[in-house]
Amino acid sequence: MTAAPDTAAPSDRNEGMQYLESLPRRLVTLYLPLAILLFVLLFPFYWMVVTSFKPDNELYDYAHFSPFWVAHPTLEHINKLLFETSYPDWMINTVIISVSSTFISLFSSVCAAYAIERLRYKGSQYVGMAIFLAYLVPPSILFIPLVAVVFRLGLFDSDWALILTYPTFLVPFCTWLLMGYFRTIPYELEECALIDGASRLQILLKITLPLAVPGLISAGIFAFTLSWNEFIYALTFISSSENKTVPVGAITELVEGDVYHWGSLMAAALLGSVPVVVLYSFFVEYYVSSLTGAVKE
Amino acid sequence: MAVETHRLVQPGRRAGWAFHDSRHRLGALFMLPAAAILLVFLAYPLGLGFWLGLTDTKIGEAGRFIGLGNFISLAHDTVFWLVVFNTMFYTVVASIVKFALGLYLALLLNERLPFKSLLRAVVLLPFVVPTVLSAIAFWWIYDSQFSIISWVLIRLGLIHRYIDFLGEPWNARWAVIAANIWRGIPFVAITLLAGLQTISPSLYEAATLDGASAWQRFRHITLPMLTPIIAVVMTFSVLLTFTDFQLIYTITRGGPINATHLMATLSFQRAITGGYLGEGAAIADAMVPFLLAAILFSYFGLQRRRWQQGSRD
Q1: Residue A234's domain is classified under what CATH number?
Q2: Structure ipTM
């Protein structure tokens, strides 16, 4: 009696109402549109890869070579990028800036989120609301006054200009995400520790943070990709070539006059995307949970 | 016994007192790093932005207060009004298409599929890859001489000449909108998919038993259950589209003849390239009312959720 519903329930959940749909019908209503959408979403990446490995004579000759395939793959473009331009410098800058701003943001967000959610000091709910509003302030309306601030602080054209300004969009995001995460950790755990005589700092370090590790990873991964992608601040606050980040360097330095070297441009786009994509592929679940978590709250 | 209870109570009470006493101070201490960053690099610049909009500041030259001068000259500036039109057009078209296709993709991914989590990971790629870098790929796809789209269409016999994607105003508008849609679909799809997964399958089963058609199930179960999350997702989507900078800067730089300039790119051009910080700040300020409207829209979307759930919070 008890076993029967147990075995029935999971199979019912798996099947759902799928038995109502035949294979040909699913092919037309599901697989075909999905395939078309996936093709459109992935084609630019395929095109990026194909172009970066094509020699120049193939690149501009659609009559003799099929544009969709590489007849004689070459590393010429990547070679040029790595040894004849400042690309390696941009890469190093981007890594330094993304990692530092991510860690600064995570540290301040953990403290802030813990204070707002758990210390519940006077006015903390208003601060929580203000953090959410700060999250909605777009960089496009901040970059002009920020340039003045960066100038006055003597940070213009240095890594610090970006390391300190990226947290303006990372801190609100991470704090908001971590507030949601801290809320899911039972308060009783902290109460027990408090009764046992633990200090607030001990509670945060030994109980709350270990339990919040998945939330920290989510916030960290997302913050890292956001800083890697950032463009408008990096374009505005950095002027010398060797201090640029990958996105800015690729678009401002690799284009010489009217001649576009599509091979090396595509190689630059490809190489600049690989680190984020690799990181993303390791932490897909965390990435998705921070993306959806930020919207759901 | 008496001694022991006494000893047990004392530290507890002391901890309680210390807790109450220091809570606000400790809270302030914990808030310090975040507050410092946000006050110096967000709140202050936000205020400074409004002030700059009221001055004639140029790069390397302190400005003086000119009241609404910048706004008055913008009101007589045909380029500004063209850019406002471009921005509205770009935002409205791109947001609607992103929403429709994103919802469609979310519904498809919510079906029973093989390799579902892999598919979901792959779908999100356009959102993960740095916008500027994928925009460079679009720039190349839209090339006037070597566009792969033109090549395929010619081979299929649908057109006879290469399309000048970025050289003609309306072509360029549609081209950048297409690139924006491409990048935005994954965000809408994955977040709506998360919403779809919270809808209980038993609702659909009950509706099917009552004879509801697929459209009726979508209209009367999926859509109402999804409304709150749609409100939030679309607010973010509209905000990001309206303030878009990277795609335009990479693909067209606002050209041809300002046809694709958005408010963000125009304010960059006037403030940083042209050096007129005050005027650029005024254009950025002009974006604020639109952004506030989008935020209010989201706020009322959230209100509706609370009302639906019967919460008084």
Answers
A1: 1.10.3720.10
A2: 0.84
